Backbone:
């Protein structure tokens, strides 16, 4: 493989890794902290993309649309959490089924509203062109996505690790009953975490739009990738999500180039290896 | 009473092609039976072993693809059936060995991922699976010289297999091994302390479940004479799980009722409602929220409750269930 | 014949505990909450694995024997938190216990409900704990005290050589306590019994030797009189 | 009664089917220290769980300064100024020492001055200041106990419930903890001290209640019990 192809693949890998991080960080937070297997997460991603496409169509600029669309998805997530998932606390199977059923419903609504044709979101004009790094030209927008992902990783880490709010969330995970006795409103915090996770997914769906487009089935395509990242990196671990996302990003792009027929299988191989050798994931905490 | 109902149900099922009217409905009846066999297989894991799988469409698909490839290689139907089921069992063993590394939700997630691997192979490994175009086969088998080409004949053949599946479930449930499987669902730790090998019991339950999923997949390729990647998509696994849950997991009739519900909603209702997926999702959510034990047990419970309310003196209320603890 | 000899260390809960119990002995293990009593049981049964040390059962090293196999070698236990099959009848609960040690448990073809020998033994076992009249009642419809007795029946059904009882009197009324006490006292001498219990009134009568665990260590071990008189016991329990 | 800081009245409570409290009544006077004694499994911790809302009683009432709190959420009861130092300490193991304290921080009710802050707690327990950035799970038992007490104080409570604070601690650390309890009492906190260890309680308690098998068996002021010649050990001992 020649040098420039390798570089292009590397940049594409970083881009996909960045998108996957935004998607899976939210999934990992919700799964790791609240023990909710949120199978609507792929739908949040797709919904974010669709809503933003409409907003942009009405003349909203790209970044405002991304933020706003994320907020709408977060609000939807909050409603789902409070109205449905809350009633099923601790009933994992029920949560799996409800989130799955919701994902069917969302997919169908999207199909009705936005039709079956792929919708491409235009690249924001400021990032259209290419940037030259080390004498090689790269699409600026793709690099921007990686940068955004790393910035979000840092911000999420700061939020969870450095603020009192983050400490309260972690306290709620450590010992929910005791956290309540100490006066922490654990249930409200968990809603917040759920909304944050949904927001991240929706936002990722928007900024992924210029690259992936938005189309029916995108939800079912993204969800397993998020699962692989979380199984690989370990649930509830931001670092695990970050590393896992980039591993998956690289495997996917290079797998596609080297073994086009088996790209999808190559993607899952490290996950299988991790499962056999280290079931809690690379950065997961030992259960129990 | 119960026997009469079951006998009536069996009689009406056996004679279905004579009264449902029209090839279209006979074919839907066949689809229901295939789905029911699949749901019964999943129920072994989800209902009796308490292990929720979202990857079983993968096993169903492995059988269908293997069957299609073997048929297209010109093998006889005995070889096709035996070969496809053997491949499925190997697949089930691999699935089980990996999924049982996880507990609870971990198990679910791994089955999703495994199912997606099969999907990826079906979709992308074109030299084996023909990718998006899928694989077509020509002709249904003619066991003992009986042609299954007509919808009614195919229905009856499927019905025989269906009866075998139901019988194997009934025997399994009443057997010591069935009791062992349910024990590992309810109290895995206690089962270990009673000397049971919990992992091995679950592994075998997975194989049993995979076997019937494979049978259903094989019938599917006979019936449909075509298999494509959508058969192994996550949606397919979810639909199958919905059959089990909606009908009532860990019951014999539940998965059958659930299969009927899902197939009918999918086929018949989609003629009147444009977006059946939404309805399917909504049924999913409604059942989980309002009738979590499933339609069959839920209806039985409500029926009993109504009957008890009619009787003048009800039995004293049972103490609330739930383990004591300190 | 040495019966049970275990020593292990390096765990955060139990630090270097050595314990040996003679065949037929009635041993009581006491200690404050968090002293590592239940952990000790879990180590013996293999539900936890020790970092170091060895566990021998009738002179056989069982440290490497998988947990479920150990119950085939004559260990049986009860749980502090009742761990039974809620939806099943008492008879079925005990039958599952008998089945666990029978090859029949792998059989997917015969009907469990027709295994007369097994069922007869299950009835016998229930009779031993005076619950045979409730054999067909679902466990969820029995009282807490009855469930405690079922717990013990499950262990007895395994025909153990060593019975580990984890707080068999916890949460019982005075009358229920009397029933369980009678039951435990009636267990034949060829069964060695190790019991964790807080209720001293009942437990002290029963015990021949007492081990006091404190912070994962054996602090005092000896006969009842020795332990009661020991200054460390008083310190732990009375702060003297 | 209105001047009771905390009162449990005729409580019946269950864990699952296990009836752990039978008609238990406890009263903690304002500014007093109630010693709650009993063996393992007597119902002491269950009483505390009822008081903070972790175990809703099936019958009976809980009041905090005369206000009904029966069946209210733990965080609502915490907001009324009730803090618990739980049995087994239950510090948030993955949080640092500072974070453990910070998450519990709360202004006192009624605009009173902040008595307890990160600063004052660190003055009370200098060890916690030294270990500020350490993960709580890695602390020694004694340090975790201090942290659990400090965490409870951070909410600037009016009522402090301490569930076996001496459990598993070396004698000199127990002495430290006890002197802290005396200090807190001197500052006007109303305290329930749960103990298996009769001697520790007898020294500091104004009132004493002994539970056995989920029932109150002895109750009275410490002086009164002493006068009546009641041997606490008889109800507790292993004889």
Residues:
């Amino acid at each position: 493989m020649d040098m420039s192809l390798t570089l292009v693949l590397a940049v594409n890998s970083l881009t996909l890794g960045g998108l996957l991080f935004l998607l899976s960080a939210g999934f990992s937070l919700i799964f790791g902290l609240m023990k909710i297997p949120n199978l609507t997460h792929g739908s949040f991603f797709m919904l974010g993309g669709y809503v933003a496409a409409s907003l942009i169509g009405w003349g909203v600029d790209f970044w405002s649309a991304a933020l706003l669309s994320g907020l709408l998805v977060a609000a939807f997530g909050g409603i789902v959490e409070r109205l449905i998932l809350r009633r099923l606390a601790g009933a994992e199977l029920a949560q799996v089924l409800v989130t799955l059923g919701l994902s069917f419903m969302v997919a169908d609504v999207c199909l009705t509203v936005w039709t079956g044709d792929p919708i491409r979101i235009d690249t924001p004009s400021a990032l259209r062109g290419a940037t030259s790094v080390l004498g090689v030209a790269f699409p600026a927008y793709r690099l921007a996505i990686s940068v955004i992902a790393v910035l979000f990783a840092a911000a999420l880490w700061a939020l969870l690790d450095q603020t009192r709010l983050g400490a309260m969330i972690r306290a709620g995970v450590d010992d929910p009953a005791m956290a309540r006795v100490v006066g922490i409103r654990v249930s409200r915090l968990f809603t917040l975490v759920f909304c944050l996770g949904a927001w991240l997914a929706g936002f990722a769906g928007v900024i992924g739009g210029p690259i992936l487009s938005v189309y029916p089935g995108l939800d079912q395509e993204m969800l397993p990738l998020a699962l692989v990242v979380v199984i690989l990196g370990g649930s509830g671990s931001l670092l695990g999500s970050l590393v896992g996302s980039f591993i998956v990003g690289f495997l996917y792009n290079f797998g596609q180039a080297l073994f086009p027929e088996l790209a999808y299988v190559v993607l899952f191989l490290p996950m299988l290896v991790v499962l056999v050798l280290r079931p809690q994931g690379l950065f997961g905490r030992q259960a129990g | 009473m119960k026997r009469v109902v079951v006998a009536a149900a069996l009689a009406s099922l056996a004679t279905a092609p004579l009264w449902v009217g029209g090839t279209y409905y006979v074919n839907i009846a066949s689809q229901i039976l295939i789905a029911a066999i699949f749901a019964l297989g999943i129920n072994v894991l989800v209902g009796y072993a308490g292990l929720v799988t979202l990857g079983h469409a993968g096993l169903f698909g492995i059988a269908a693809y293997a069957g299609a490839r073997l048929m297209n290689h010109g093998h006889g139907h005995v070889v096709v059936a035996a070969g496809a089921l053997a491949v499925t069992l190997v697949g089930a063993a691999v699935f089980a060995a990996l999924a049982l590394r996880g507990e609870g939700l971990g198990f679910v997630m791994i089955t999703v991922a495994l199912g997606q691997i099969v999907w990826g192979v079906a979709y992308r490994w074109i030299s084996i699976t023909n990718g998006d175009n899928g694989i077509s086969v020509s002709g249904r088998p003619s066991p003992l010289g009986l042609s299954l080409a007509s919808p009614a004949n195919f229905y009856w053949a499927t019905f025989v297999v269906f009866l075998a599946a139901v019988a194997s479930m009934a025997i399994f449930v009443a057997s010591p091994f069935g009791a062992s499987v349910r024990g590992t669902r309810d109290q895995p730790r206690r089962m270990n302390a009673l000397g049971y090998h919990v992992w091995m019991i679950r592994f075998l339950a997975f194989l049993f479940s995979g076997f019937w999923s494979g049978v259903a997949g094989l019938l599917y390729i006979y019936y449909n004479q075509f298999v494509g990647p959508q058969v192994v998509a996550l949606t397919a696994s979810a639909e199958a799980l919905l059959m089990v849950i909606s009908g009532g997991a860990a019951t014999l009739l539940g998965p059958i009722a659930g299969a009927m519900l899902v197939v009918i909603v999918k086929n018949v209702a989609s003629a009147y409602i444009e977006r059946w997926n939404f309805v399917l999702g909504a049924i999913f959510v409604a059942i989980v929220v309002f009738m979590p034990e499933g339609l069959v047990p839920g209806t039985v419970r409500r029926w009993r409750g109504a009957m008890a309310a009619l009787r003048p003196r009800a039995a004293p209320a049972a103490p609330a269930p739930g383990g004591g603890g300190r | 014949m040495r019966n049970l000899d275990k020593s292990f260390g390096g765990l955060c809960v139990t630090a270097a505990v050595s314990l040996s119990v003679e065949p037929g002995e009635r041993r009581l293990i006491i200690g404050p909450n968090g002293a590592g009593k239940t952990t000790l049981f879990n180590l013996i049964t293999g539900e936890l694995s020790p970092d170091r040390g060895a566990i021998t059962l009738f002179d056989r090293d069982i440290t490497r024997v998988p947990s479920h196999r150990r119950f085939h070698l004559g260990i049986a236990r009860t749980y502090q938190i009742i761990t039974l099959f809620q939806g099943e009848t008492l008879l079925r609960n005990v039958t599952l216990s008998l089945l666990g040690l029978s090859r029949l448990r792998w059989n997917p073809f015969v009907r469990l409900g027709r295994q007369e020998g097994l069922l007869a033994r299950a009835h016998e076992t229930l009779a031993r704990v005076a619950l045979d009249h409730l054999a067909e009642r679902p466990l969820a419809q029995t009282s807490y005290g009855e469930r405690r007795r079922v717990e013990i029946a499950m262990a007895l059904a395994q025909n153990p050589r060593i019975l580990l009882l984890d707080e068999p009197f916890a949460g019982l009324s005075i009358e229920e306590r009397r029933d369980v006490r009678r039951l435990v006292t009636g267990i034949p001498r060829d069964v060695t019994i190790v019991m964790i219990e807080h209720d001293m009134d009942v437990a002290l009568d029963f015990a021949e030797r007492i081990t006091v665990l404190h912070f994962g260590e054996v602090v005092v071990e000896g006969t009842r009189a020795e332990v009661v008189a020991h200054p460390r016991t008083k310190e732990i329990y009375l702060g003297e | 009664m209105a001047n009771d800081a905390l009162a449990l009245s005729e409580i019946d409570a269950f864990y699952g089917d296990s009836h752990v409290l039978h008609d238990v009544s406890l009263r903690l006077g304002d500014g007093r220290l109630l010693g709650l004694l009993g063996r393992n499994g007597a119902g002491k911790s269950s009483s505390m769980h009822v008081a903070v809302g972790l175990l809703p009683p099936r019958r009976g009432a809980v009041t905090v300064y005369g206000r009904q709190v029966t069946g209210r959420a733990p965080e609502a009861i915490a907001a009324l100024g009730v803090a618990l130092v739980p049995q087994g300490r239950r510090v948030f193991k993955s949080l640092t020492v500072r974070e453990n304290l910070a998450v519990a921080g709360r202004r006192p009710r009624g605009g009173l001055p902040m008595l307890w802050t990160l600063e004052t707690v660190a003055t009370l327990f200098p060890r916690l200041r030294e270990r500020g950035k350490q993960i709580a799970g890695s602390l020694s038992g004694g340090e975790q106990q201090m942290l659990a007490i400090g965490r409870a104080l951070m909410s600037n409570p009016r009522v402090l419930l301490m569930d076996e604070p001496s459990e598993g601690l070396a004698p000199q650390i127990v002495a430290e903890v006890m002197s802290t309890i005396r200090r807190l009492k001197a500052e006007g906190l109303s305290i329930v001290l749960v103990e298996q260890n009769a001697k520790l309680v007898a020294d500091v308690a104004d009132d004493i209640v002994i539970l056995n098998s989920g029932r109150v068996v002895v109750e009275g002021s410490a002086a009164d019990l002493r006068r009546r010649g009641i041997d606490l050990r008889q109800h507790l001992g292993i004889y």
In short: The radius of gyration of chain B is 20 Å.
